[in-house]
Amino acid sequence: MKNAPATAGTGLRRVPAALIALLLAVVGLAAPHAAAQASSEESVKVRVVPALQKAMPGDTFAIAVEFAIKPRWHMWTSEAQAKALPPGMVTFDSAVFTAIEVQATPAAAVTVAVPNIQWPAPHGAKADVGDGPQTYAVFEGRAVAYVPVSVNAGSAGEVRFTVATRFQACNENICLAPATVEREVTVAVGAVHEAGLAEADVALFKGFDQSVFGRIKDNPGMAAAPMPGTAAKPIQFGLFGWDFTLDPGSSGFFPILLALAFLGGIILNFTPCVLPVIPIKIIGLSSAAAGDRRRTFLLGAAMTAGVIGFWLVLGILLSTVTGFKQSNQLFQMPAFTIGVGVFIALMAIGMAGFYSVGLPQWVYAIEPKHETYLGSVIFGVMTAVLSTPCTAPLMGAAAGWAVTTDDWRTIVTVFGTIGVGMGSPYLVLSAFPQMAKRVPKSGPASDVLKQVMGLLLLAAAFYFIGAGINGLREEPTGLYWWVVGATGTAAGLWLAWRTMKLARSTGTKAFFVAVGLGIAGISAAIPPVMTYERLPWRRYTPDAFQAALKDGNVVVLDFTAEWCLNCKTLERVVLSSDEVAPVLNESGVRLLKVDITGSNPDGTAKLAELGRATIPLIAVFAPNGREVFKSDAYTAAQIVEAVRQARGR
Predict the structure, then answer these.
(1) Can you give the pTM of this predicted structure?
(2) CATH superfamily placement of domain 20-232
(3) Which among 22, 83, 622, 634 could disulfide-bond with 626, CB atoms 3.0 to 4.6 Å apart, if both were Cys?
């Protein structure tokens, strides 16, 4: 399992694991079906006790987290301890460590120094898993961890602490399913302080080292989080094989995160959702560039403002509206998806010049031949809306982390930065309009270009309308892909035909005919590719997921939706490739599709549990429930390796 979310400076690492049988499972020697038959909570009882029940501003105290582990059962130590084990004790790379997270409400009332947890001393358990006899570091028996807490100045009222522990219990034969146990305790912050503990609980704190508060006072950064209430779990970023982790507890974390969010925003412009509209803006800027350069820049700035404004509003909604926790959640409403498709269709008709249908005046305002400031803002908003079904590498992990913090400042800042990144290329393009001057501005060639772009935009409209209709159906249909493919094919053939008629230069004629035939060929291939399924996907439910693990299967979760072009592209190009499909079709691999085209509360909850707010996402789990791999931008080699690793090979 990967790290669970943490707040108030929490430094969660990996969730619990245990001893010998887990080691055996990792190397493929343990019985796979034994791993998830019961919960680890059956062998480990957790109790949480604060040293003070009433406190004053300035007070310091500890919260004790007591693990009562049954005889002959074990848990791994914390990851912090694994980095500095006593002489003679070892761990291994695939170990899943015990972790604690604490969330205080209100977060500003206290400082929870989770990075300074005082962990119990590890015990040594001997085993031989192929490297000879080794002594592995574990917790066993009664183990107590202490979380240091300081009451901040000016605080008053009740503070509620939610303490979540993640662990996995193993004995010499089996490993139980990892468990997350939450306990809530409260401390009243007022005019007096009071221990109010039973004698047995007073003894519980005899092992706590009070000197930690002196060290924190000398070095406040030891306990501080980037912002009150922000999650401090490590964040995994993946970019098609280039993977790295960013630790919120590290110096410079937040600026680096914002830089990645900015870069992810730029990459959004090159996703299948947004790419079709970029030439439209280039056409508009090329027309404006023929006149006033200052006006050209202001038009680009207006579009950029529309892009940024949408992402800021989205961040505000995510941080304030109950139940709204995903940036692409709007597309789970079929009416919205269909509405976007109709809007794009109107844009496409205007783009192609078919004005006889009597479009509303506001449509003409954003048609490239009639550039206005309001139209540019609306075009920017539309472009940003189109980006939300897709997730660019880097920005998905940054956005998912921000949403889990439940801190509105963090969420709005991160989402606003994504908007700045997405809008910046248009601002640069408007500042240097000479980059768009090669686009023909009038005449038959210009008309052909606009007609072709209008047809391609119409294909995108049919895609969103079809995806929205699928959201209303219990069983999705792929018929709309044939309409999309036919429209795209018509665009390519029209470009080739008109080029043959209009072009005079042999080189120009050969180039644009080749482009047109290429567009037609790709468009014609889309329907059979998108409607062919070579993998035995089953529908995800929590029960199906647990049953698959209980049966000893490696489980692959694919988070997808009909309106998610990135998802469809990765599914066909990577998951259904000749390299990956045979591995996913092997016995002992269960494929579960988490389709959030429409309302899917279970799928949405699972996505949030994995710390993400966007799709696509793929996650691979070992039979014991351990998360082996998770990414929104993956390669075929990564999927094959993840499945092999989950099998313990």
Answers:
(1) 0.48
(2) Thiol:disulfide interchange protein DsbD, N-terminal domain (2.60.40.1250)
(3) 622
